[in-house]
């Protein structure tokens, strides 16, 4: 994810967020729904816990039904992955 991507997350209400694409040259945004554990990106549409969901989880907390159970160290590493790509 590009530097500053977490600050570009936009809450849409009802546990939904708009998240920027991980590509610097794209204006693409994806919608993440925490309640359903879904994202409109290709991986998220397949039910995977994608990097956009990781970024929302890192920035806003909360539970995702498709999120793996992780330790504090795992959460830290997921956050680094989301923020640094």
UniProtKB/TrEMBL annotation:
Annotated SWIM-type domain residues: 30-61
Molecular function in Gene Ontology: zinc ion binding
PANTHER family reported in the protein's UniProt record: PROTEIN B, PUTATIVE-RELATED (PTHR35385:SF2), PROTEIN B, PUTATIVE-RELATED-RELATED (PTHR35385)
Organism for this UniProt entry: Haemaphysalis longicornis (Bush tick)
Keywords: Metal-binding, Zinc, Zinc-finger
Lineage: Eukaryota, Metazoa, Ecdysozoa, Arthropoda, Chelicerata
Name the UniProt record assigns to this protein: SWIM-type domain-containing protein
